[in-house]
Prior knowledge:
- The protein folds into three domains: about 5-75; about 90-150, Ubiquitin-like (UB roll) (Roll), CATH 3.10.20.420; about 150-235, Alpha-Beta Plaits (2-Layer Sandwich), CATH 3.30.70.
- Helices cover about 55% and strands about 25% of the residues.
- It contains nine helices and eight strands.
- Helix 1 (about 5-35) runs antiparallel to helix 2 and helix 1 packs parallel to helix 3.
- It starts with a helix and ends with a helix.
Amino acid sequence: MSVFRIKKLFRKRWRRWRRAIWTCLILLLFGVAAWSGQNLQEQMTNLLTEFRAEGPLAIETLHVLQSEEEQQHKAELDEKQREFMQQLNESKVKRQVHLKTTYVCGVEEQKLGRLNADSIYELLNKNPQWQGRINDDGEVWLERSISDLSPECKRQAYMSVDANGNLTLFDGPPEEEKVLRTFFQLDIGSMESSLPKGVIKQLEEGIRIQDIDEYNSVLSTFSDYARDQAENVMSPAP
C-alpha cells in the first residue's frame, strides 16, 4: 500500500474518530451543565463556536439538547402553574388581575379588574396557554405569548443596521436609535459584493416592518450574511 493511500486512510479514520469524540464531549457538557444548574446554551455556544469546523455535527447535536432543554423548561412552567393554582385555591379574596401579552416585537399590559378565584379559573380554562403568577403585592399577572408584532410595532418598526454592523429592529426610524432588538452582526463585505446597492441603501435607511411576514422575510434574507452562522443558530436574539 502506498504512503499516499495510508495517509488518506488515516485522515478518513481520524475524521470519524474526531466526530465521535466531539459528540461525547458535547453530551458530557450537557450532563455537567444540567447537574450544576449553569446555562447550557451559553456553554454550548462557546464550545461549538471555537470548534465550528465540526459545524454540521455540532449543530445537529445541539438541536437535540435544546429540545431536551425545552421539555425541561415546559415542566418547570407546569410546576409553577400548579403552584399558582394552589395559591388561588387557598385565596378567598378578590385580586387585581393584569394581562401581559408578549409579542415577537413588543409587550402590552392591561388591567382586567378585581376578580375572585373562580373568575380567574374561568379565564385560564378558556385560555389554557396562559401562565399565571401572584406578585409580592398580591396582584395576579396572567401572561401570554403571541407570534406576531404588537400593534405598536406594526405602526413604527424598522429593520436596519446599528453602528456596530448588527441587524437591528428599531422603534421608529433608525436615526432615532430606539433599539427594540438586536439580531446578529452582518458581513457587510459579502453583502456589498452580492446584493444590489439599492438593497443595502434601503437597509441602511431602514426597512419598514408592518407585519410578521415582512419581519420574517427581512430576517431570513439577511441571515444569509450573518458573520457567524453557527453562533446565530445556537444563540437566538435577545
